[in-house]
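Run log // design_07
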């Protein structure tokens, strides 16, 4: 992953991780590219090397303990249900898994139910 101000590479990778998830739209959050489902945040590019993704606090603590090379938080995010992801360290499969877990929690129930019905 390249540093600097070029967020496009990071956002393209994030979009690939969300491919096939119904209702995902591109937008912005705090001035950077973001993915949303309905009106809820799915993930946002924090900087060229970092993505912020909503995550329940108990799961966030587990991720920070189990894989601190991938997941981290800054003082700004302490106590908030958001975890930061080091894009250079996360595999495509793990990123996809994180985005999908967030989608399941954030998406309108009708979308979740429709997707689950199609996968049966």
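design_07 sequence
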């Amino acid at each position: 992953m390249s540093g600097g101000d070029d967020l496009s590479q990071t956002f393209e990778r994030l979009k690939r991780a969300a491919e096939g998830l119904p209702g995902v739209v591109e937008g912005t959050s705090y001035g950077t590219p973001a993915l949303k489902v309905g009106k809820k945040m799915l993930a946002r590019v924090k900087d060229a090397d970092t993505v912020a993704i909503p995550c329940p606090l108990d799961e966030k603590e587990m991720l920070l303990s189990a894989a601190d090379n991938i997941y981290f938080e800054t003082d700004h995010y302490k106590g908030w249900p958001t975890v930061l992801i080091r894009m250079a360290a996360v595999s495509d499969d793990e990123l996809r898994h994180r985005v999908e877990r967030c989608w399941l929690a954030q998406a309108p129930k009708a979308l979740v139910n429709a997707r689950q019905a199609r996968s049966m």
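The CA atoms of residues 104 and 112 lie 6 Å apart.
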